[in-house]
Amino acid sequence: SEAPTITLNNGVVMPQLGFGVWQVPDNEAAEAVSRALEAGYRSIDTAAVYENEVGTGKALAASGLPREELFVTTKVWNSEQGHNSTLRAFDASLDRLALDYVDLYLIHWPMPMFDTYVDTWRALEKLYADGRVRAIGVSNFKPAHLRRLAEETSVVPALNQVELHPALQQGELRAYHSEHSITTEAWSPLGQGKDVLADPVIGRIAERYGRTPAQVILRWHLQLGNVVIPKSVTPSRIRENIDVFDFELDEDDMAAVAGLDSGTRLGPDPDEMD
Ligand code: NAD
């Protein structure tokens, strides 16, 4: 299967479904990423703090796929925020990935208590201007953080990667994104495989389509326009999660999933993360 694409606000084209590798140990990452590439994934989401950029890079190289067919995202970790430290962190990530550019570079968390995300963003603007990254974006930014970037910097983030799943639908943030041409990317799109996958509403829809709960949730994201990066190290699930382009939820099903929004975070509130 080949994922549909979305076009970012700078014209760069990105697969709407990719493979996330959080919590995959470096010595298992090459295997998992190789399985994903075989299954048809072309977008990989890693981060310096995941400590698996080396394994990820090995799988990218071993795949023999042309670089321009791959879409690689990595992120600057909180402890490296600030202008020069971000530039150094970017070089270190490229080295570990064994790449000479990444497709998308993100600020991992705003860390407003550090008050460095504006300087960090200016470093990303420089990397973008220097052609070392095809697009720049943020992660875990709330509207207030995005507004501050809009007031004090020049490049609008291409994308904001945030916790988003049926139990946390991020209505306010998604509205801000669409007003400002920022793509919404959902992390933990399956709610980390916890409660949301076992929800009876999702289960009934899945049964009706002859699909799995994970496939129904991913379909819901895609139909909302979200970019998704589900994670699995199980080959059958890796394949299952990309086999979602040949069916469509109807309006009633979309409304039923909309009804599951309880505002429940699995991760920290970005304003309180420390
Ligand atoms: P996810 O929602 O993708 O869930 C993954 C878990 O769900 C798996 O470990 C497995 O237990 C289960 N699962 C996966 N496929 C399944 C299937 N088909 N059937 C049943 N169970 C299945 O959670 P995630 O890994 O937290 O998020 C995905 C990616 O998002 C991460 O790997 C990472 O790349 C990114 N992420 C980013 C941030 C951030 O701060 N920017 C935070 C968390 C995650």
TrEMBL record:
The active site is at residue 50. Pfam families: Aldo_ket_red (PF00248). Keywords: NADP, Oxidoreductase. The keyword Oxidoreductase applies. Substrate binds at residue 108. Residues 17-260 form the NADP-dependent oxidoreductase domain. Coiled coil: none annotated. The record marks 75 as: Lowers pKa of active site Tyr. One of its GO terms (molecular function) is 2,5-didehydrogluconate reductase activity. The keyword Oxidoreductase applies. Belongs to the aldo/keto reductase family. This is Aldo/keto reductase. The lineage of its organism: Bacteria, Bacillati, Actinomycetota, Actinomycetes, Kitasatosporales.
